Amino acid sequence: MCAVIVEPLIQCAGYMRMYHHKYLELLSEACREYNIHLIADEIAVGFGRTGTMFGFQQAKITPDIICLSKGITGGYMTLSTILTTDDIYDAFYDEYEKLNAFLHSHSYTANPIACSAANATLDIFKDKDVIKNKILSAHMRKCFESLKDHPHVSDVRQKGMVLAIELIKDKKRKGLL
Q1: Strands (DSSP E) along 7-149, which ranges?
Q2: Contact call for residues 143 and 100 (beta carbons, < 8 A)
Q3: Residues of 57-78 as b/e, b for ≥16 C-beta within 10 angstroms?
Q4: Domains of the chain in sequence order
Q5: What letter would DSSP give residue 96?
Q6: CB 10: neighbour CB atoms within 10 A?
Q7: pLDDT tens digits, residue range 3-39?
Q8: How far apart are CA 63 and CA 73, in angstroms?
Q9: H or E segment at 4?
Q10: Residue 82's beta-bridge partner residues?
């Protein structure tokens, strides 16, 4: 195995399952021990959604690769980027004329207008205290707390500004027909 990809703190592609930051700490340790790259997919959870700028920060780890999108432009335009360590970058870098460099880009890379939107968004994150959204997060928790007793809600879970409500057909039968 050469890499593990994880959505930090919330498996957004897996029914918004939320997990403790300790899992990321242990995963990072295992990756280091077995020389496996750790890739943090922060596309859905980055830019303050979990309560910190990036979800992996709550585990106090440093991934080898970080995937970013959506929030980098404040959601106004499509843009994505990959951040990596110098070692990984250097392994793929070479002069174009040698024809052995790893040339990579995708549809949402380097649009000048999107990059401008990203710069403006990053300035807001730097200059304003937008990530410390504990008041709004607590308000959301309070507003949806009563749904836990609803007969068609099996779970209400929240991590920072992400709140998921799991619906179920019949709570008494745990959704079974």
Answers
A1: 10-11, 17-18, 37-41, 65-68, 81-84
A2: no
A3: bbbebebbbbbbbbbbbbeebe
A4: 3-127 (3.40.640.10), 134-173 (no CATH)
A5: G
A6: 22
A7: 999 999 999 988 899 999 999 999 999 999 999 999 9
A8: 22
A9: strand 3-6
A10: 67
